[in-house]
Amino acid sequence: MPQAQLARVLESQLASWQQRTGRREAAIVDVGGGTGGMATHLAASGHTLTVIDPSPDALASLSRRATEAEVADRVTGRQGDAGDVSSLMGESSVDVVLCHRVLDVVDQPSEALTSMAAALRPDGLISLLVPGRRAAALGHAINGQIEAADQAMDDPRRFDLDQIVALFDAAGLELVAEHGIAALADLVPESAVESSAARQRLLELEVRLSTDPVFRALAAHLHVTGRPRP
Ligand SMILES: C[S@@+](CC[C@H](N)C(=O)[O-])C[C@H]1O[C@@H](n2cnc3c(N)ncnc32)[C@H](O)[C@@H]1O
Fold this sequence. Notes:
Rossmann fold; seven-stranded mixed sheet; 23% strand; alpha/beta; globular
C-alpha cells in the first residue's frame, strides 16, 4: 500500500482543516492504527495522537516506535474496538479521526462509523481508507480467477464511493473529498520501479490520477474525507 501517496493526500486535507479552523495542531484518533506508522508520522508534525486498536502486540510496537521517533509524549495507545471510539474518547472531543484499512475488518462497519462520527467535534474531519471493490474484481480477473472476480463485486468487505456515501449519511457525516490510492502501483512490475527516481515518478503519476474518476474507481484503495453534517 503506497503510504507515501496516502500521506500526501492526508497532509493536504489536514492543511485545509488548519486553514478552515485557524488551529495548527489537531487531536487525532487513529482507529485500528496498528503499529503506528501514520500516528508517529503525524505526531512528528506536532499533532497529538491516540491509537485505538484491539491488538496488545500492535500497541506494544506502537509504543516502541513512538519512543524511537522521539514523539512518545504525543502518542498514546489504547486497547479498544472501533465501535468504542466515542465512549473511549468522549463525544465531540476529537479533531480528526483516521480509519485506514479497518472498516473492512470490523463486524459492524455502520455502528463503528457512527461511533467515530460521534467523537468528532463539529469542525472535525474523518479520513477513511477502504479497499476498492472494482480493483479486487480486476485483480482476480487478471489472474484468471473469474469466479472470485465475480464474487468480489458483491463482497461486503470491498467498497465503492456510493456505499461510503450511504454509510456517511447514516453516521451523520458528509463527503468532503474522495481520492483513489494506488490506481497503478499494484499493476506496475517491480523491475520498472527499482530506482528511487522511478518510484518518485510513479508517485507523482498516482497523485495526478487520484482525482480522475475512472482511475479512482479502479484504484486498490479508496480514500474518503468527511465531516459532521451541520
Ligand atoms: C490492515 S491493519 C491496518 C493498520 C493501519 N491502520 C494501516 O493502515 O496501516 C488493520 C488493523 O485493524 C485492527 N483491528 C482489527 N479489528 C478491529 C476492530 N474491531 N476495531 C479496531 N481495530 C481493529 C488490527 O489490529 C490492525 O491493527
